[in-house]
Design goal:
Blueprint lengths: L2 H29 L7 H15 L9 H24 L16 H12 L9 H4 L2 H31 L9 H27 L9 E4 L5 E4 L4 H10 L20 H25 L3 H28 L2 H4 L16 H14 L14 H12 L10 H21 L4 E2 L2 E2 L2 H27 L1 H4 L6 H16 L14 H30 L16 H35 L5
Antiparallel strand pairs: 1-2, 3-4
Helix pairs in contact: 1-9, 1-12, 2-7, 3-4, 3-6, 3-18, 4-18, 6-7, 6-8, 6-9, 6-14, 6-18, 7-8, 9-10, 9-12, 10-12, 10-13, 10-19, 12-13, 13-17, 13-19, 14-15, 14-19, 15-17, 15-18, 17-18, 17-19
């Protein structure tokens, strides 16, 4: 590890902290329906959309209606995206002549982009037409991100409102997320990426002659626009198979920094939105501090593991860190930082190959996803994910002191705790359940490229990434098979909707409750004590649930490496 490396990490963290309040304040005004600098332009369009769709910003929805609208909207998006892939060979904007995508892969991809996962069992430049990329994948990048943001707002209203039966309007929240936040920021980011050298064209692929005289086809396309939303919306699906390791998607250090900041910006700002809406910004800072501690710990371990390198190579006199699978233009610090950011925020974009990380370095992305992507997390998803742990932590605190737990003046009772546990337990059910099946069934085991614990880690990473709606791949696993396309698709749907619906149920229950004034026995939830309690609950729940699987994978691999054996 070097001082320059830590300075790069500190600069990133500083930028995120500086963005939290201004972006959080702007988002709060947007969701409250206040006038913003974009209102004169977007306001008329927004009102027209409401009239056409038969709704109004004044129309409120019960949590069940809110959830139903969310599910039906995403179902429609799933069907449209599936159809675009199946018929793309006969549709326009297909200069490379891409054929129809197979049914299993089309199901996997539709589930992936609808759930904000963007897991890709294909090479984007060799599989999807321009129309599918733009009208299918890019559109879902926007609306799946907006769905997560809308659900986060509904959960926030559950705590900020009292004695009401409504959580807002899904259509309004999603529209405002898209038109006032995602689209304007993406327009700016797209122009910046084009300036930095990222392609943005509808022209055909370019044919070039190499120095050896051979012909090479260079894939181009509407890359910059998809890059902007894939990062800002924590989607992660790359236009190119190499994702952000490809020089057309990530030309240099400045584009790399912008991408990393984009991944965290909205998720971090939502904690400030929460604080503003509940009337105490310290509450938002306490949640962000919890996320920050987990993030810095992960960066430190991952950076240390990669900078230390392989001791077996050191014994041969080959000093230095582990540069395998990394771009020279980014190096070890920015590769490790990017890996932790993308798995902490359920983005899934990569600028290095995680399969080439050291065992313990690769374990950190796994842990980030196993915890439910609550360290910033996906836009919206990270916030309502950590709120589930807040509910559990408050319940445990209540057991310690022998009184009904409270959070922000709302009594946390059996219904809320049961819903929180249901949402938290569905993640290991899919992650560990599908991993167990894939390791013993020929359909799953036949896709492993590496033997021993590393092969197990490849399977574990795939289902963990899918269920956590991350989308990054450990590599070394042939995922484009019938078994993996179907099971990973199911895991993605479970990880998305079996968390959202209980979270909305909790919000609906809390919104209907009265606010109880704080008393001498109320646990302060905006200070260091609560941050420590919440950290403890997250670590204990994650450790008890996933440590056995980690012990069979990266931990055993690390110990074997120290004993002189590699896989």
């Amino acid at each position: 590890m070097t001082l320059i490396g830590w300075i790069q990490i500190a600069v990133f963290c500083g930028i995120i902290i500086l963005l939290v309040k201004p972006l959080g304040g702007y988002m709060t005004r947007v969701y409250n329906g206040d006038r913003t600098w974009l209102s004169p332009v977007i306001g008329p369009i927004e009102r027209l959309l409401y009239r056409v769709s038969g709704t109004s910003e004044k129309e409120e929805q019960h949590w069940t209606t809110y959830a139903m609208a969310m599910v039906l909207f995403n179902l429609a998006g799933f069907l449209v995206l599936y159809g675009l892939q199946r018929f793309q060979g006969a549709l326009p904007l297909n200069p490379a002549g891409m054929g129809a995508v197979s049914p299993e892969l089309a199901f996997n991809t539709a589930a992936s982009f609808v759930t904000n996962t963007n897991w890709q069992n294909y090479g984007g430049e060799a599989t999807m037409s321009y129309l599918t990329q733009m009208a299918g994948l890019t559109v879902q990048n926007f609306v799946s991100a907006a769905t997560g943001m809308a659900v986060a707002l509904a959960v926030i209203r559950g705590f900020s409102r009292k004695s009401v039966s409504s959580l807002g309007n899904f259509w309004v929240d999603m529209t405002r997320s898209t038109f006032y936040i995602l689209l304007p920021l993406c327009v700016v980011l797209t122009l910046v990426y084009v300036y930095l050298g990222v392609p943005q064209t509808l022209g055909a692929y370019v044919n070039a002659t190499t120095l050896e005289g051979a012909q090479q086809t260079i894939a181009v396309g509407p890359v910059a626009s998809q890059l902007a939303i894939k990062m800002l919306g924590t989607n992660g699906g790359g236009f190119f198979n190499a994702n952000s390791a490809h020089p057309f998607e990530n030309p240099g250090a400045l584009s790399n920094l912008i991408q990393m900041v984009s991944i965290f910006a909205i998720g971090a700002a939502l904690t400030n939105v929460f604080g503003r809406m509940v009337g105490n910004q310290k509450q938002g800072w306490a949640i962000l501090a919890t996320m920050g501690v987990l993030f810095i710990a992960g960066v430190a371990v991952c950076y240390w593991a990669e900078a230390a390198g392989n001791p077996l190579l050191h014994a041969l006199g080959l000093e230095g860190g582990n540069m395998e699978g990394k771009e020279v233009r980014f190096g070890i610090p920015l590769s490790a930082l990017f890996a932790v950011i993308t798995t902490a925020a359920s983005c899934g974009a990569v600028n290095a190959m995680h399969d080439s990380f050291m065992a313990l370095g690769g374990m950190i992305p796994l842990i980030n996803m196993m915890l439910g992507e609550i360290i910033i997390g996906g836009v919206g998803a990270g916030f309502y994910g950590i709120i589930l742990f807040v509910v559990i932590a408050i319940f445990v605190a209540g057991l310690m002191v022998g009184r009904t737990p409270e959070y922000l003046g709302k009594k946390i009772e059996a219904k809320e705790v049961k819903m929180a546990m249901l949402a938290v337990l569905c993640l290991p059910l899919a992650m560990l359940g599908f991993t167990a099946l894939a390791t013993v069934l020929p359909a799953g085991a036949s896709s492993i490229w590496n033997p021993g614990p590393h092969g197990f880690s490849e399977i574990l990473y795939a289902y963990t990434s899918a269920t956590a709606n991350n989308g990054s791949a450990f590599g070394g696993l042939s995922g484009n098979t019938g078994w993996y396309n179907i099971t990973i698709g199911i895991a993605m749907l479970m990880g998305r909707f079996l968390v959202i619906i209980p979270a909305l149920a909790i919000a609906g229950s809390l919104a209907a409750k009265k606010t109880v004034p704080a008393s001498g026995g109320t646990l302060p939830t905006d200070g260091t004590l609560f941050v420590g309690l919440l950290l403890g609950i997250i670590i204990v729940v994650g450790g008890l649930t996933f440590f056995p699987a980690l012990a069979l994978g990266p931990i055993v691999e690390h110990l074997a490496m120290l004993a002189g054996q590699t896989f």
